[in-house]
User: Which sequence fits this backbone?
């Protein structure tokens, strides 16, 4: 290799890195730096300080909301997995192209407009909405209830409806990778279908469940639109507080510090999903 | 055997429930778009197309639709070009390929609110006014990971022997690229492009943070919904959903056969 081709290689590397570094790494680093700044009379003060982090840990509002949001999003993941697992399992019992047509059917709603879905769900959950009309009609409720909209329940229900497909896909892929010979061997050795499921299928699908939980959790915790739309005054989540720092509260550095806290949880969730989501000893 | 049948029926019932849960939010606006709504109460007796006619006169929404299409097309071009170049770079085992791939994946792994806020601060610090350009940049870094991944997967499946045969027959690097590699990538690029467009068309969280005065349709709808809006929006929603179904069909046509093969192999 002579000097000229060495320079050419270096130039190619430089060009490849230029845009990603400029538009992805630089903004993220600047964002991180912002979390150590402060606000003075509506102006950003560029002296470094950890005051934002101290405020997050010491003021009694932020940590409780942070935890309750984590619990909320974890509940969303669990409900999504509980609904998604049977659906994914059902798909693997289908044969040939029907399996993929059905999978596609369950994935298509993902590509449908997010805002429109939130709006439609809100009108379904509302006082004069479909859910209340049905419950009253069936005689389960005496009069329309306001339990389903503008509170934490509403956020839980809406996020669940929006994110179920993200639970189905990884579980389906994990279930599909389980070699059929294992199931047949289990049946040959006299196991009942319940025993086969508990001892073979379920343990081998754990990686899919882990990925599904982590996917749904990460998507749920990063969402600030859904809580804003269906949460009302009672459904306050971390995402909303974070977003308000960039709007009404106008404290970008504090908002950046809150985002760092969010990023830490997200990274932990992704790593946990990755750790338990790895398939062991199965053909890829 | 009876318990087997019972469990299958139970599973099918849960799957049906999930499907109903997933599709009901899509049907509500479509159905109501064909009826007149007075004081929040729909008049179910007479179906009408009046909402669709009103829509053609709603200049606000039509302008937002136009902005969305412009942003989508720019995002597609940028992300397919960058995605292809980055995939080629990674595939040729040059310096820092792994690090580059990690950077490209970051905005897709992180919650969109973080990417959006990072860009918001970045544009402010470099004194770059927010406009459709900033939305295009936000969308591109968001969809880049998917386009890149789609193209890289195809690139890795282009047989090594094809490339070697091309060199053996006397083609140089560029000829091999234009005549052998690129034609093999074209359907993955098309699939990636449609996926990028579909994601850009619906992207709300990054857009809401980096938007200027002119905005895309989801953000416009978002602003309207908070106030409660006119019935022509239902008509628009129905049309948007129809359009998305068409996009999904197209994506499936370009990407699914390969994926089905991948599931078994």
Assistant:
């Amino acid at each position: 290799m002579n000097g000229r081709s060495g320079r050419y290689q270096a130039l190619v590397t430089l060009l490849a890195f230029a845009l990603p570094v400029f538009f992805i790494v630089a903004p993220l680093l600047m964002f991180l730096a912002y979390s150590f700044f402060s606000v003075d009379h509506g102006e950003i003060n560029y002296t470094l300080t950890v005051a934002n982090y101290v405020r997050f840990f010491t003021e009694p509002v932020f940590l409780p909301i942070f935890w309750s949001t984590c619990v909320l999003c974890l509940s969303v993941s669990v409900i999504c997995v509980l609904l998604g697992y049977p659906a994914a399992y059902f798909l693997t019992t289908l044969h040939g192209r029907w399996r993929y047509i059905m999978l596609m059917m369950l994935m298509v709603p993902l590509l449908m407009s997010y805002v429109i879905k939130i709006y439609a769900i809100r009108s379904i959950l509302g006082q004069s909405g479909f859910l209340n009309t049905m419950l009253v009609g069936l005689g389960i409720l005496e009069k329309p209830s306001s339990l389903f909209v503008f509170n934490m329940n509403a956020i839980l229900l809406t996020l669940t409806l929006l994110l179920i497909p993200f639970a189905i896909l990884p579980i389906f892929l994990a279930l599909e990778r389980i070699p059929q010979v294992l199931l047949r061997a289990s049946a040959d050795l006299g196991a009942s279908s319940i025993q086969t499921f508990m001892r073979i299928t379920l343990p081998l699908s754990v990686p899919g469940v882990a990925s599904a939980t982590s996917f749904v959790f990460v998507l749920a915790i990063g969402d600030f639109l859904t809580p804003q739309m269906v949460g009302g005054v009672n459904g306050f989540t971390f995402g909303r507080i974070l977003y308000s720092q960039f709007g009404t509260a106008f404290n970008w550095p504090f908002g950046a510090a809150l985002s760092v806290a969010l990023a830490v949880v997200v990274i932990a969730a992704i790593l946990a999903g990755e750790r338990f989501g790895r398939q062991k000893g199965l053909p890829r | 055997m009876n318990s087997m049948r019972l469990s299958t029926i139970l599973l099918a019932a849960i799957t049906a429930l999930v499907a109903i849960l997933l599709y009901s939010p899509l049907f509500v606006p479509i159905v109501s778009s064909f009826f007149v709504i007075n004081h929040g109460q729909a008049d179910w007796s007479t179906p009408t197309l009046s909402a669709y006619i009103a829509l053609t006169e709603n200049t606000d929404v039509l302008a937002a639709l136009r902005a969305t299409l412009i942003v989508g097309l720019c995002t597609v071009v940028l992300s397919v070009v960058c995605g292809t170049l980055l995939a080629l770079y990674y595939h040729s085992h040059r310096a820092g390929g792994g690090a580059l791939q990690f950077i490209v994946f970051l905005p897709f792994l992180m919650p969109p609110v973080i990417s959006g806020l990072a860009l918001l601060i970045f544009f402010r610090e470099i004194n770059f006014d927010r406009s459709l350009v900033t939305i295009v940049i936000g969308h591109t870094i968001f969809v880049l990971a998917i386009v890149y991944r789609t193209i890289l997967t195809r690139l890795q499946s282009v047989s090594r022997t094809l490339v070697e045969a091309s060199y053996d027959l006397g083609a140089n690097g560029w000829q091999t690229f234009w005549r052998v590699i690129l034609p093999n990538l074209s359907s993955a690029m098309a699939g990636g492009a449609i996926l990028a467009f579909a994601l850009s068309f619906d992207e709300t969280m990054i857009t809401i943070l980096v938007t200027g005065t002119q905005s895309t349709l989801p953000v416009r709808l978002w602003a309207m919904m908070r106030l409660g809006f006119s019935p022509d929006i239902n008509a628009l929603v129905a049309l948007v959903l129809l359009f998305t179904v068409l996009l999904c069909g197209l994506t499936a046509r370009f990407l699914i056969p390969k994926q089905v093969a991948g599931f078994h192999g």
In short: Strands of chain B lie at 36-38, 41-43. Residues 258-265 of chain B have pLDDT under 50 and may be disordered. The first strand of chain B starts at residue 36 and ends at 38.
